[in-house]
Amino acid sequence: MIIPVRCFSCGKLIAHVYDLYEEALKKGEDSEEAFERLGIKRWCCRRMIVSHINLIDDLLKFPRLQ
User: Fold this and answer.
1) How far apart are CA 55 and CA 3, in angstroms?
2) How much is the pLDDT for 66?
3) What's 64's domain CATH number?
4) Which domain holds residue 2?
5) Longest pairwise C-alpha distance within the chain
6) What is the dihedral of CA 54, 59, 61, 64, to 10 degrees?
7) What is the DSSP letter of 8?
8) Number of domains in the chain
9) What local confidence, expressed as pLDDT, does residue 29 receive?
10) pLDDT along the chain (66 residues), means of 10
């Protein structure tokens, strides 16, 4: 759905780096280098970003239930 604001395990703020991480991957940067550059060092935070699937655009296609 929407990227979580904080890591579920440690509570560190991670939502602000998701777009930067996606841009780095599109430019061809290695994910390890991107995480180091963005300051994401813990594995739990990396897991939150790597395992996120952005479904909000797909869900907005459906009509709302009344």
Assistant:
1) 10
2) 61
3) 1.10.10.60
4) 1-66
5) 46
6) -150
7) T
8) 1
9) 94
10) 87 93 94 94 94 84 78
